[in-house]
Design goal:
Elements (H helix, E strand, L loop, with lengths): L1 H40 L2 H15 L9 H13 L9 H9 L5 H10 L4 E10 L2 E6 L6 E6 L10 E9 L2 E5 L3 E2 L5 H12 L3 H11 L9
Parallel strand pairs: 3-5
Antiparallel strand pairs: 1-2, 1-4, 2-3, 4-5, 4-6
Helix pairs in contact: 1-5
Length: 218
C-alpha cells in the first residue's frame, strides 16, 4: 500500500507539471497572436496617437528616436494599457474579434491578463527567465516565469512588471521596467503617495501611468 500511494503522488505531480507546460505554451501562442493583431489590424492613426501619448507619459522629446528597449515598452503599453479613440484597449479589441479562434485555455489566460497592470516588485532572485519576486510593501514571495520578451533583472532591483496567473503559476508578461538605484527613492515616494490614496486609486494610477516609471530606468 505505501508503494502504491507514493507512485500515485509522483504521477499526480507529473500530470500537474505537464498541464502547466501546456498552459505556458498556450500563453506564448496567445502572446504572439496579440502582437500580430497590433501589427496587422490596428490602424496607423491609433499607432501614431499611442506613440505620442507614450512619449508624453515618459517625458521623451518628440523628435528623439526611441531605443529598442523603449520601442518594446511602447508596443506593450499600446497593447495592454492604451485606450483607443473608441474607448477600448487593443487587447480587448483582439479578444472580441478573435474569441471564436481561441482555445479554452487561451480564453482563461486572456481573462487573467485583463486584470494585470504594471506593478512594483523587488527582485529577490533571478535565473534565466525565472524570477523570485516580492510585491511592493508585502512580506511574501512569488515565483514567476516569463512569456514574451523578458528583460533580465538583477537581485535587489526594484522593477515594474505585468504579472498574470497562467495555470498554476504566476507569469511575467513582456519586459519589466528596471528602476535605477539612484532614482529608486523618487520612484518609491511616488508609489507610496498613490498607495495611500486607497487600493482603487492606486491600481488606476498604475494602469494608466505605470509606464511613466520608464523615466527612472538605468
Amino acid at each position: 500500500m505505501p508503494e502504491r500511494k507514493a507512485t500515485f503522488m509522483i504521477n499526480f505531480e507529473e500530470m500537474k507539471r505537464e498541464k502547466q507546460e501546456a498552459y505556458h505554451r498556450e500563453a506564448e501562442d496567445l502572446y504572439e497572436r496579440l502582437f500580430e493583431f497590433v501589427e496587422r489590424d490596428l490602424n496607423m492613426r491609433e499607432k501614431v496617437r499611442a506613440k505620442h501619448m507614450f512619449r508624453d507619459l515618459c517625458g521623451f522629446e518628440t523628435d528623439r528616436v526611441l531605443t529598442h528597449e523603449e520601442e518594446l515598452h511602447a508596443e506593450h503599453w499600446m497593447l495592454f494599457d492604451y485606450i483607443t479613440v473608441i474607448g477600448s484597449r487593443p487587447f480587448d479589441l483582439f479578444i472580441r474579434s478573435h474569441s471564436a479562434e481561441l482555445t479554452a485555455k487561451m480564453k482563461e489566460i486572456a481573462g487573467m491578463m485583463m486584470l494585470m497592470h504594471l506593478a512594483p516588485y523587488r527582485v529577490l532572485h533571478t535565473c534565466g527567465t525565472e524570477h523570485l519576486l516580492s510585491p511592493f510593501q508585502e512580506e511574501r514571495e512569488i515565483a514567476v516565469r516569463a512569456v514574451g520578451s523578458p528583460q533580465q533583472a538583477e537581485a535587489g532591483e526594484l522593477i515594474l512588471a505585468r504579472v498574470a496567473q497562467v495555470g498554476f503559476e504566476k507569469t511575467m508578461i513582456g519586459p519589466c521596467i528596471r528602476i535605477n538605484p539612484d532614482d529608486e527613492e523618487k520612484a518609491l515616494e511616488k508609489l507610496r503617495y498613490f498607495e495611500a490614496k486607497g487600493r482603487k486609486s492606486y491600481h488606476r494610477f498604475l494602469k494608466e501611468t505605470g509606464i511613466s516609471f520608464l523615466q527612472y530606468r538605468p
